[in-house]
Amino acid sequence: MTKVLIIEDNDDIRENVVEILELSGYDVAAAENGKKGVEAALKHKPDIVLCDIMMPEMDGYDVLQALNTHPDMQATPFIFLTAKAERTDVRRGMELGADDYLTKPFDDTELLRAIESRLKRKQVQQLFYGKSAQQLNEVITKKDGLAELKKLMLERSSKTYKKNQHIHYEGDRVTGIYFIISGKVKTVKMTEDGRELITGIYKTDDYLDVNIILSEDKYTDTAVALEETELSFLPTDQLDKLLYLYPDVGARFITLLAQNIREKEDRLMQIAYSSVRKRIAETLVKLVTNHSTDGKSIKISRDDLAALSGTSPETVSRTLTDFKDEGIIDKQASTITLVKPERLAKMKN
Length: 349
Known about the structure:
Blueprint: E1 3-7, H1 11-23, E2 27-31, H2 34-44, E3 48-52, H3 60-68, E4 78-82, H4 87-95, E5 100-103, H5 108-126, H6 133-141, H7 145-154, E6 158-161, E7 166-168, E8 176-182, E9 185-190, E10 196-202, E11 207-208, E12 222-225, E13 229-235, H8 236-245, H9 247-273, H10 276-291, E14 297-299, H11 302-309, H12 313-325, E15 329-332, E16 335-338, H13 341-345
Helix pairs in contact: 2-3, 8-9, 10-11, 11-12
């Protein structure tokens, strides 16, 4: 049963609110002043607090500030009940973190509607995660918010994609954001002459389609599983609600987006001004740095390496043969091992 705490020094109003709420199926606790109200809140841990402003001992503002110092009460919805309807009072209450403001006298419908509205908003914080609002608050305010958000994504249902299975196509409507639980995914664009250009390779713990934060348009590339891959998915509308409640998550995603843009700019400069040997060399070094499990080897097809370095598969084959003859790499089937990575890193032509 939902627990409500009413803090009100007027006996008639307090008793009337208690009666209305109990008849509506709520479990109600009551306090006649601010000091007792804080004590009751810490004892009963209500799901929502209704509080008068002008009271002895502690006024409503002091009550709200006191409750905000307790981690297990910071996410509890708080509604002010007051006869003071001046705009300055409303503003001060909201600045302190109040969720709503009811001006006395109010009728049964107004009271119940305000409570139901704030309780539903609290449920949004728990939707899909099975976490309390306070737990979510602690998660997002931690220093490494994305690492903590990962734990929440892992609790969601997931879907497994087979190798070469498409996750979404260029031109499809954006529906949400993906998190890679295991496996690898590439995003690609097709050139006018039908060649594939890889725009990104993503691995375990990466997020796909972070750009939906800034755009609700269509996907600008196609996502394909490079190997058997397990993905968790968060729909756009739920992500929007999470970002509204916790802007810090959006800030961290925007940082990821900025990094992605910089990487693509670097690749464009590489394709425009670097020689083929240098492009392929830099691509191999970056692949091993970001995706190798042993720090020296990477498994990638000739076509994918060509699509990443902006050249043809035939050119990739010739260049890899040259690198092997020069003792810079070793190649077995689709696995490339860097024998002399420093040579690749310093290659100028």
